[in-house]
Structure formats: C-alpha cells, structure tokens
Design goal:
A hairpin with a 6-residue loop joins β6 and β7. The chain contains nine helices and 15 strands. The relative contact order is 0.12. With 291 residues, it is an alpha+beta fold. It is elongated and about 80 Å long. The strands form five sheets. A five-stranded antiparallel sheet has the order 5-9-8-7-6.
C-alpha cells in the first residue's frame, strides 16, 4: 500500500510496454509468469557472450524473490529498466532500453553492420617476369596526383584479391596513391605501374567504400571439413568461442544467390522454434558470403 506503480519507475514507457508484450508471447497460460529456464534461454539468445551460466544464475536468484522458479515478467522488466547501480551492467547487457525489445525472432543476432572504409589497402604485385598489367585495372589520372580505378578486369590480380577478401573490397572509385614510394604525381605513378618490377601499391578507398564490422570467424572456430555442399553454399561445423557449443554454419555465396532469396530465407527461419526444425541463431555477412 502506498507503493508507486511499476510504471513510475521507468524512464522509457514505450520500451517497457513493448518488452512486456514480447515476454507475454512466452507466457503459456497467461498468468503473468515465465519460467527461469525460459528466461535464461532468452538472455542467452540475446547475447551468449555476455550471459554466461554463472551470470544468469546470479540474475535469476535475484529476480526470483519467492524461489518458485517462476518470475513475474512485468515486474522483472520494470526492475531491469530501473535505476539502482548494483545491476547496471546487467541491465545494459539486456539491452531493454530504447528500441530493443524481446520477440522470439528478435533473439537471432544479425551481425551485418557496415562502416565507411577509411583504412588504406596495401597490395604487392610481382611484374619482374616481364608480364605487365597484372593488376587488371583501368585508371584515370585526371586529378594529376593519383590513379583513380575506373574498372577491374576479370582475371586481374585485384579482382582475384577481392575473391579472398570478404570484409574489404577494392572497387571502381578507389585511388592508387602510392607505388614504390612515388606519391602525388599521376604521370610517374602510371609510368611505375608499367615497369617490370615488384610493385608495392597503396590504395585509398573511395568515399562510398564500405567494410563489414564483424567476421563470423571472430565468434566461431570454423572447421575446414564440409558437412554438406551445394551449388552455391557449404555447411561447416562451427564452435562458438565463448561457450564451446557446436553449431552448423551455412555459408551462401552472395554473387550466386539473389539478395531477395537470402533475405527471404532469413525472414522465414527467424520465428521457427521447434525441436524438429533447424533453428537460426546468428546471421553474419561480408562482401562474399551470408553465413
């Protein structure tokens, strides 16, 4: 009696209502309670690196005040969004504030963010055997200082380099700014490019160049042995580095698979949650593949 309503504790009422509504989807009988086991599965799905078994046990012990292995999720969401400092880090890991809320399909983490590529790329090409033009490019020297790449030719060195570089691609619009120490002189750069020597080349990305922030190999140890192979995809066993749990990782070649097909596959698999159906956990993307 006299206790303020739960909503008075909240700094973001909209986020609270979205989160409670999403938790309600896990409430089988509508009694406002959710099991500790199901709640633990939700948090592990959100961020398995942050939510270890030890951390989840500590959180559950604190949240299950009457020790009945069930949690009133309305109060739990309000507590997560509260202001006391003891659980501040855990609230941050739960990501309940702002736009993030809980849906079953929302537990699939999509690591597909990009950023503008700012780092220069260094490549080395050996033309000492007398074969020049190995880079396989057309360039424009009109700015007088650099060589702007206008086209990459099939079979050239840079085109082959792209096939081995999933996170950063060299593309039309990038500029060659240095060859063997020569800079700020487009004529000398073009002349050096034609020499039968070892070329040390520095390439500056264009303003439109993008690079992907996450690599699937940062999170999983991928085994070389293929579990299955299709025309445009392979499946390998992956072990999550943070938990040692094994997963199947399917890598689909983006050039051979229409983007709309890839997106439809992800969209269909996200809400599926059944013991007899393959479950989607994470999505990664780079310039070459969707994993």
């Amino acid at each position: 009696e006299g206790r303020p309503a739960i909503t008075e504790y909240l700094s973001d009422q909209d986020a609270y209502e979205r989160s409670v509504s999403a938790f309600r989807r896990f409430d089988q009988n509508g009694d406002g309670l959710i099991s500790k086991q199901e709640l633990a599965r939700i948090f592990k799905g959100l961020d398995p690196d942050a939510w270890t078994d030890e951390r989840i046990d500590r959180l559950m012990d604190a949240a299950d005040s009457d020790c009945d292995d069930c949690i009133n999720y309305e109060e739990f969401v309000a507590w997560l969004m509260g202001g006391d400092r003891e659980w501040e880090a855990d609230r941050a890991a739960a990501c309940l504030k702002g736009d993030r809320d809980f849906h079953k399909e929302g537990l699939i983490v999509e690591h597909r963010s990009t950023k503008t590529a700012a780092e220069t790329v260094f490549v080395q090409v050996n033309q000492e055997d007398g074969v020049v033009g190995k880079l396989g490019i057309q360039v424009d020297s009109s700015d007088g200082k650099t060589l702007k790449i206008t086209k990459l030719k099939p079979g050239g060195f840079l085109n082959a380099w792209n096939t081995q570089s999933p996170l950063r691609q060299i593309q039309a619009g990038d500029r060659i700014i240095d060859i063997n120490g020569i800079r700020n002189n487009a004529k000398l750069l073009a002349k050096e490019l034609k020499k039968k020597v070892l070329l040390d080349i520095t390439i500056q990305p264009s303003a439109a160049a993008l690079t992907f922030l996450h690599k699937v190999s940062d999170f999983y140890d991928l085994q070389r042995t293929e579990l299955a192979e299709g025309a445009y995809s392979v499946v390998r066993r992956g072990v999550r580095k943070s938990t040692d749990v094994r997963y199947a990782v399917k890598s689909m070649h983006k050039k051979a698979t229409p983007k709309e097909d890839l997106e439809r596959m992800v969209r269909i698999m996200k809400p599926l949650d059944h013991p007899n159906i393959v479950k989607l956990y994470d999505v990664y993307e780079d310039h070459l593949h969707t994993h």
